[in-house]
Each structure stands twice: as C-alpha cells, then as structure tokens.
Amino acid sequence: MTNTDQSVTASTATRQTEGPPVPGRFDPATEARLDGIDRDATRHVQDNRPAKTRNGYAADWRAWEAFCAQTALPPLAVRSGTLVLFTEWCWLQPGYKPGLFMAPAAIDRRLAGVVVTARREHKLQLAVDVAEEARALLKAKVKAMEKAGEQRGRGQAPALLVRHMEKIAATLPDNLSGVRDLSLMTMHFAIAGREHEVGWLRERHIAEDPEGRGLIVDVRISKNYPRVVQVPYGSRAHLCPVRAWRRWREAAGIGAPDGFAYRRLHSRHHTVMDQGPDAEAVGDVITRLAERAGLDIRPTGHSPRRGLVTESSRAGNPDAVAEKQGGWAKGSKAMRRYREDDDGFTENALHGVL
Length: 354
Description:
mainly alpha; 2 domains
C-alpha cells in the first residue's frame, strides 16, 4: 500500500470515528458565544420584570437555599421529593405575625418561585408537574388546619364593592388628596389592576378614546400580561373613573407624558411631587380610605381587582370579559375562585325549592 493509500485510509477512519456533526452543535468558540447570549438574555428578561416580582422570586430562592443548607441537599436538586420536604419545612416557618406560622398561600408562592427560578436562571429541565405532590401535601395540611381552627396569615383580601366605594367617596376631602385618591381607587377597580400596575402607569398610558367613549388605558408594566383596557363612562357620575381621572389630571396640573399618572403629595405642603407611588403605597391608599369611611372590611391593594370580578359576575358578564380586563390567563382558576366565592346566592340549590 502506498503512502497515499495509507493517508486516505487514515482520513476515512478518522471521519468514521468522528461521525456526522450533531445538529444544533457548533464549534467551541461559537458555543461559548451562544452561551453568553443566553446568559445575557436571561438577565435582560429578569431585569425587565417588576421589582416586586424579582424580589419575590429572590426571597423564594433564598428560602430554598436555607432549606437545602439545613438538610444537606444541593440547591439544584429541585425534584418532586425535595419539594415535598421543602413544603414540610415551610409549614414550620414563622409567619408575618409573631406566634403565627407561614400562611399556605405564602408556601404555594414559595414553591412557584423555586420552580420558576430553577427553570429560568439555572436552566433545569423540570417536569410540568414537578410540584404536584408538594401542592397535594399542602392542600391536605390546609384541610387539617381548617378542621382544627388554626389561623395562619391574613387570609384572602376582601372584595372592594361598589357599595364600599360609595361610602368612601362620601368621606373624601374636597382637596387635592381627595381628588387623587378617588381617581386612583376607581381606576384601580376599572382595570382590575394589581398594585404595581396602577403605581407604574404613566400619563401617556391613559388616553382619551377618539370616539369619546371613555379612556384607553395601556397597562405596560404587568406581572403576567400587559394589556390595553377600555374604560367607559360610569353610570354613577361620582364614581366614574373617566371623570375622576380628568379631574385629577386638571387639578394636579400634570402634563409630562412620561411622568407618573398618580403622584405622591408632599406631606407638609400637599403639593404634587414628581415621584409616583410604589406598589405598597397603592395598597395603603385603599386601606386608609376604608378606615376613614368606617367600612366593615379591611381592603388591601388586591381588593379592587377582586371587587371588579365580583361586581362583573353579579351584572351577568361572562368570565372572559373579566379575564381580559384584568389580564388573567384564559380559564384562570384564580379568577373563577373570586367569582365562585360570591355565587352562593345566585347559584343555589334552594332556588325554587322553599
């Protein structure tokens, strides 16, 4: 065999050993560059999430790391069994108030935060139902807790209904603070907004409908689904979100398109400031208004969102309408629970019986 034949044979053997290129794989330099792009993309998406969401996920992962440290488990061991153990561990953790343990809703959120962080930041390939057994355990514990009469957490936020807003409107002062709070409350209710969605609205996000039917609100910053919400005139002039917004905008003299739609007021001089309220401050406004009006409930920043679902259901509107208004996913179980909690009188087995 000649040297040429030997060279050809060796080259053929080498190709056979190497095999065909793997689809989707590239040379090391390209792979390194693509890995860097992936990391930058993950960081970019993370940075554009609302601060409250980022902080929540970070707190959930810190809790997971504390659990792993105590149980000598690697933090990336996010599996069905370890999530069950994590649920047991969370169940014994202190809650928001001394003497109380962590609320079931907080534990459920912890599970979601751990799974989301593991997938998005650590690129773990997790099954869709990886937390199913952990949530089944949590559900069983909640039943046992309710049977024993144990209290954990604050409970669900009560719905802020029209009758509540009627009482609040009657007690609002006739000044800049009262004008702003009425507009913030009615807008919060009208768009079924989350606290951070209302707090981050800019003036350019609230536009007049070209045909004069009300307002068009562009909810850009949202935990789940940014959306455009049409807000028509209300039948009650004193609770109409359209009229309330126009009055606040004129009284505050705001005109910068990129400025916050709802502004803080100086605590001493009561003048309009450039800063907008953070998410917690939006909820505090709703709670404060209810206390002033002497309501029989203590609403939070989630109450207007729940209230619109309740009142919409009572008015006979289909679920899909509320889903679109508040940015819920199609077929949202959470939204339907709000409605079902209020449907006991409209959908009742005693109708036509007694």
